[in-house]
Design goal:
Length: 421
């Protein structure tokens, strides 16, 4: 459920007409709904009620300061994957004690920044990384709290580019080697083993892979405890999918996920950490774009939009489906047409949808890509010297620009000419 609805024939973000924002900000832009972000974040708290837990929002899904502050004010922790994200989380008011650091290639410099801030936990992904962290921690005279990410060898049955828990994926250590690695971790004076971490992929639409992975984690926790390790936290990762509007098989609800967590690992009396990203912000954001041209091909009609793959790369990168709806509600079913919907970038993959049935639209009309809040703005680039798409946050009947569109001049000025030119 989200808070983007038609009122009087016009798409609204909560109480604000999208047309009003478009008139002020100009297209393309991302627009987020505070009520939707809040609702989705709180669903996880409800799902894990009765269990000692911390919801660490995976901020790589959408990391604008205003979004992070909205979540920080709700008590969110954060899952970060770079020193940049760590600094963003701290700047938004998230206490370091609620931040976990994931990622397969943390540098020593990143480790130092996070250790100096007294970060809650590192999720380690390899032995070399563990030795590096040990050294950095000893250099600072501290111990680094760590969970080790295990790879349970489970196929999350999601798009191959976002599955992370199979043997061939680069993430974590094989669960079969976990005992050895934990033994080694315990021998390092700069490392304080606090738990186990697992994250098997993104946009999961079935609980079965979670059940498989979490059972393995529960068994491992018991084994590691019997080996003498003080396993007191389980970080269960993120990945719960959202409905993108096409298929009938709806992803499981957070409440069902919470039940599964309690069933599989509840008996261990660990503090549970989860790292949802997509589910918190995915349906809380839309990308609004204008039709530049309606172009007739030999056997089809193309809509050429002012948004492109550099603004929303998911269709090009993951074959992702997004509902695309007119901002002015279509008056009748007969007014539907079929279009190939593309951006203006010089790449054949700059194609948002093929043969998509939507309301007949004309040059200048506004369209909204739904479910664009996660992995949208954060993955945007300036390819083709197109300015990074601005972001807007709505709350009730107020809205604010939370990131301006850069001027072309500013973009050019970032380059420097060497002395010999
Ligand atoms: C990407 C990622 C997440 C979030 O995944 P979602 O599908 O957005 O919920 C959580 N944890 C880790 C380690 C990740 O890499």
């Amino acid at each position: 459920m989200d808070h983007f609805e038609y009122r009087h024939g016009s798409l609204h973000a909560e109480g604000v007409p999208v047309e009003e924002i478009a008139a002020m900000v100009k297209t393309p832009f991302y627009c987020y709904s505070t009520a939707t972000i809040t609702r989705h974040f709180n669903l996880f708290g409800e799902a894990l009620s009765g269990v000692d837990h911390l919801v660490c929002y995976a901020m790589k899904a959408a990391s604008n300061q205003a979004i992070l502050k909205t979540l920080a004010d709700l008590g969110a922790g954060m899952d970060v994957v770079s020193a940049g994200e760590y600094s963003r989380a701290v700047a938004a008011g998230v206490p370091a004690g609620r931040i976990v650091f994931s990622g397969v290639g943390k540098t020593r410099e990143e480790m130092r920044v996070a250790l100096e801030g007294r970060i809650r936990q590192f999720n380690l992904e390899s032995e070399p990384e563990m030795h590096a962290l040990n050294e950095v921690a000893l250099g600072l005279g501290v111990r680094a709290p760590v969970a080790i990410r295990v790879n349970p060898d489970v196929d999350a049955e999601t798009h191959s580019k976002i599955a992370t828990g199979r043997k061939r994926d680069k993430f974590g250590i094989p669960i079969s080697r976990a005992r050895d690695v934990y033994r080694e971790a315990a021998s390092l004076p700069g490392i304080d083993v606090v738990g186990i971490d697992v994250h098997i992929g993104s946009q999961l639409t079935d609980l079965a892979p979670y059940r498989f992975a979490y059972k393995k984690v529960a068994e491992l926790a018991a084994t590691l405890r019997s080996d003498g390790h003080d396993i007191r936290r389980l970080d269960l990762g993120g990945g719960l999918g959202i409905p993108y509007g096409r298929s009938n098989d709806l992803p499981p609800l957070p409440i069902e996920y919470g039940r599964l967590v309690k069933e599989t690992v509840g008996h261990l009396d660990c503090e549970i950490e989860i790292e949802p990203g997509r589910l918190v912000v995915g349906n809380a954001g839309i990308l609004v774009s204008s039709v530049i041209y309606v172009k007739s091909g030999e056997d089809r009609e193309f809509l050429i939009l002012d948004a492109a793959m550099n603004d929303l790369i998911r269709p090009a990168m993951y074959d992702a489906y997004h509902d695309i709806v007119p901002v002015r509600e279509s008056p009748s079913e007969e007014a539907l047409a079929r279009y190939d919907i593309a951006g203006p970038v010089c790449e054949s993959s700059d194609m948002f949808a093929r043969d998509r049935k939507i309301a007949r639209v004309a040059q200048g009309d506004l369209l909204a890509f739904r479910s664009a809040g996660a992995y949208g703005a954060v993955m945007a680039s300036e390819y083709n010297t197109r300015p990074l798409v601005p972001e807007v946050l709505v709350k009730g009947d107020q809205f604010a620009i939370i990131r301006e569109r850069p001027a072309i001049d500013e973009m050019i000025k970032r380059d420097t000419i060497p002395v010999w030119l």
